Amino acid sequence: MRGRCSRPRMMSQNQKSIGVFDSGLGGLTVLREIHRQLPGENLIYFGDTARVPYGNKSSATIIRYSREIVRFLLARDVKAIVVACNTASSYALDAIRDMTDIPVLGVIDPAVRSLTHKAKAGSVAGLIATKGTISSGAYEKALKGNHGSQQLISKACPLLVPLIEEGYAESKAAELILRDYLEPLAAAGTEYLLLGCTHYPLIAITILRLYPQFKLIDSAEETAIELRTLLSDRGLMRDAQAASVELFVSDMTDSMRALQQLFFQSNVDKFEVAQVGDDH
Amino acid sequence: MRGRCSRPRMMSQNQKSIGVFDSGLGGLTVLREIHRQLPGENLIYFGDTARVPYGNKSSATIIRYSREIVRFLLARDVKAIVVACNTASSYALDAIRDMTDIPVLGVIDPAVRSLTHKAKAGSVAGLIATKGTISSGAYEKALKGNHGSQQLISKACPLLVPLIEEGYAESKAAELILRDYLEPLAAAGTEYLLLGCTHYPLIAITILRLYPQFKLIDSAEETAIELRTLLSDRGLMRDAQAASVELFVSDMTDSMRALQQLFFQSNVDKFEVAQVGDDH
User: Is there a catalytic annotation at residue A5?
Assistant: First the structure.
């Protein structure tokens, strides 16, 4: 390594921040878990709140938006990128890996790998997610890629995100809608249920009240575990007592401050608007 | 007026199309009503499906997006513009009128004028809409502008749009959520209820089942009535037996074809993707 004087702005790789992004603020459940498991890491989060949700958009649009955000994170010299959005993890991972040599993690593979380790071979596993994630077939592809023999039964649950964001996660209405969504999965003998959307950990308690037989796999937790292993293996871990958490969003309203609290559940060092893409 | 030969490309003003836009496809309930009341008019609709919804975005963003769409419609030489989106009607009408001399109608004023004509002076009237529309205070402003003395009680109903789009408009879950939203309005003695979101006509039947005492004011219907009067007064009506309906969206997915049927309820001549704004 060069001396300080000759290259004063050079930061050693492990001191750099980790970049995390999502279509909105739901990915903060992933950020929270990374912060919990890796409290010494500086974190930069981008939520594309001006263009949320991605789940109902075409793959071409999702890839374009994701590339714009990755350029924003790379400009801040991050050492790794976590795509904390199932829709973007479904469609945009390859396009992002074409842009950089730093490690890029999605939220799908870690959850699927956990399933293949925990669930019996040939057993029935459930997957709930947004329409975009389900129709992408990304979980089936990841299961195949990880040589999992589990049978995946999928159900798109488009009403769960608005119910969670509006504080209805534990309501009677949410129970009725969850029963609609989950009854076929229970009837098929689901043991493990993959929560394929970053919002869903916040409705887990209602799911388990209705279906206590389900064992939930939370991609936020699994992704943070894989990130920790990856940083450790490559000597990229930042060994510090304190770290900063900075949030950027493409649009800011009062309700976003409430969602930040709902999803991240603690204070941050920065929470401000930043623009990405060619249209700004 | 000039002769045909000297200016061959000049189309007489009344032959031109009417431009209608919304953040998404909900504004098709307004388009449908215009088509029903003015079957001789050629209609061009733009739905900003790549950036829907507007309701949770800042006013600056909503104005920017609206101006981009209006440029798209003006390039197609429309004779009038209908802002078939409550959020854009709340924030962007002045900015749009600064761009053009053709008539520009929002969906708020027609509904409010209808209320001032129908409801008793000083009576309690209800308003349901998205968060963005409610927090804009646009209905209160329009009521004042039209010298209405009714007392407006507002309730943001953010879950109704997803419930409607997912086919839950007549479900038990929708009833529970509607009761949460509407009970305070009923308790306050609401007689007339303004449906302040273009989606809401599709949940009207459930509202009336729960609260048969409410008289609903549908902005789609009222806006089409005002548009008809305006075109007639200015000699801008196109007197024809048949007309074309063309839909453009900024992003297309399979579910948008389903929503087009849900909201417009008949076939169209064109339904395709078009880009607006500087980012394309």
Answer: no
Domain residue spans in chain A?
Answer: 13-106+222-273, 108-219
Q: Which residues make beta-bridge pairs with B20?
A: B45, B82
Interface membership of B158 toward A (CB under 8 Å): yes
Q: What is the pLDDT of residues A37-92, one digit of tens each?
A: 999 999 999 999 988 888 778 889 999 999 999 999 999 999 999 999 998 998 99
Residues 6 or more apart whose Cβ sits within 8 Å of residue B243: B35, B39, B40, B41, B42, B43
Q: Which among B49, B56, B166 has the least Cβ separation from residue A159?
A: B166
- Nearest alpha-carbon partner for B19 in B54, B41, B51, B45: B45
Q: How confident is the model at residue A11 (pLDDT cuts 50, 70, 90)?
A: confident
| B251:A168 CB<8 A | no
Could you tell me if A18 and A42 are in contact, meaning their C-beta atoms sit under 8 angstroms apart? yes
- Write down the ipTM of this complex: 0.81
Tokens of B5: 């030969």
> Do A176 and B172 count as a contact with CB atoms less than 8 A apart?
yes
Q: Angle at the Cα of B115 (from B110 to B117), degrees rounded to 5?
A: 95
Longest dimension (CA), chain B: 66
Which one is catalytic: A30, A85, A105, A161?
A85
**Best B49, B54, B57 residue to mutate vs chain A (most A CBs within 10 Å):** B57
For chain B, the helix, strand and coil percentages under 3-state DSSP, each to the nearest 5 = 45, 15, 40
pLDDT score, position A56? 74
Residues of A in contact with B252 (CB under 8 A): 58
Evaluate whether B13-106+222-273 and B108-219 have a shared fold: yes
In the set A63, A197, A227, A256, the catalytic residue is: A197
Q: Is the pTM of this model over 0.90?
A: no
User: Which CATH architecture fits A13-106+222-273?
Assistant: 3-Layer(aba) Sandwich (3.40)
CATH number of the domain located at residue range(s) A108-219 in this protein: 3.40.50.1860
Answer whether residue A5 shows pLDDT above 70.
no
pLDDT of res. B10: 66
Residues counted in chain B: 280
Q: pLDDT by residue (tens digit) across B5-42?
A: 444 456 899 999 999 999 999 999 999 999 999 999 99
